[in-house]
Amino acid sequence: MKLNATVIAQASLDLLDRNGLEGLTMRAVAKELGVQAAALYWHLKNKQELLDAMATVVLAEATRGLEGPRAGEHWLDWLAGTARRLRTAMLSYRDGARVVAGTNVAHPEVFRMTELTLRTLTDAGMPPAEAARGFPVLLHFTVGFTIEEQARTGLNYDENPYQADNLDGLVDASRYPLTAGALGLLFDPDTDAGFEHGLGVILTGLASRVDAKPDSVL
Predict the structure, then answer these.
(1) Nearest 5 degrees, angle CA 161-CA 83-CA 48?
(2) pTM for this one?
């Protein structure tokens, strides 16, 4: 197989599923591909460029076939669906959200998703400046939530500290009664419900910004 950045990135994602982000090295990726590590550096200068290429694959999967809102589809429903697509793509790889976070991705499909999202927001009546600031809020929530969600699988621990049995007695209820009472929801194993709740909060906030003044603070 001829090497290129995409082939290397896909092999790296396969390796990621087995070893996690901490176990991902250029040498390990080269071994996965059956080549010398030096061969990788013709295509990717360092590990950061490798992560950028991996994030490109994940985001391209999330945005493949994405179109603007269908006739009669509410713009908030479209935004929710787009966020769910991104979360699903990141969850398909171990540590997938950590790979995406903070990377530099310049794939045309990602710019297309950005364009479609900004157009959807402005078509709904949101000023362009509000749309440009609002979209990252949704994006960062989705990535950040998924990072935490994947961390709670406990794969990087000898024993998962997020399991219900390990949370019992963790907080002194006499000192922190509200925290102790909410612990089951703060570390709710039903991450789908948690994501949908947070997504609803973000979308409600975005809806409130329609027709907002660009320089408004709240």
Answers:
(1) 70
(2) 0.90
